[in-house]
Amino acid sequence: MKKILTVLFSIVCIVTNIDAQTITANSIAQNSVKQGEEFVVTVNISKCDLSCFAQYCQQLPEGFTAQEINGGSDNANFYFEKNKVLFQWYKLPINRENVVLKFSVKVQDTLKTGKYQIPGYFTYQINNKLGYVETLSDIEITTK
C-alpha cells in the first residue's frame, strides 16, 4: 500500500508544480569519495509555513546504499529500498520554516569510478493540490 501511494503521489506531483518560488530544497554532499567509503548527504528544505503531508525522495545509482543517521530524519519516516531514499511526513513539523535531513551513503568498493548524478525531489500538498521541487547533486567516485 505504501508503494502504491508513493507512486501515485509522485506522478501527480510531477504534473502539478505549485508555488515553487517559496518552497525550496537542496541536497548537499561532498564532491568526491573513494570506492568503499561512506559520505553524508544533507538535505535542506525551506517549507515556509507548510504543515501537510510531504515526502523527500532521492534516487541513488546502483552500487550505493543508504542508512538513516540517528536524529537526521526531522520526525519523518525513513525508508531505503530499490536504490531510493525516502523520508515521509504525515504532517510536516509546524514549529519552524526549515527541515534538515541527513543520511549516510556507502559506496561499493567495486563501483566503477567516475561522476554520478543523484537526483531528488520534495513533494508536498498545499490547498488540496500537490507541489514539487527538484534537487540534484553530483559526486565523483575515485579509486581507493
Question: Mind explaining what this structure looks like?
Answer:
With 144 residues, the protein is mainly beta.
Q: How many β-strand stretches? A: 10
The rounded Rg comes to: 15 Å
Shape: elongated
Structural category: mainly beta
Along the chain, the helix and strand elements come as HEEEEEEEEEE
The average pLDDT value, as a whole number, equals: 86
- The unreliable regions are 4-21
Major β-sheet annotation? 6 strands, mixed
For the record, give the distance between the C-alpha atoms at the N and C termini, rounded to a whole number.
41 Å
Range of strand content: over 45%
User: What percentage of residues falls in helices of 4 or more residues?
Assistant: under 10%
Q: Provide a count of the helices.
A: 1
| Neighbour order of strands in the largest sheet | 2-10-9-4-7-6
Helices and strands, with pairings:
Blueprint: H1 2-15, E1 24-28, E2 32-34, E3 38-46, E4 54-59, E5 64-68, E6 77-81, E7 84-89, E8 98-107, E9 114-126, E10 129-142
Parallel strand pairs: 2-10
Antiparallel strand pairs: 1-3, 3-8, 4-7, 4-9, 5-8, 6-7, 9-10
Offer a few descriptive terms:
144 residues; mainly beta
Summarize the structure.
The protein is mainly beta and 144 residues long.
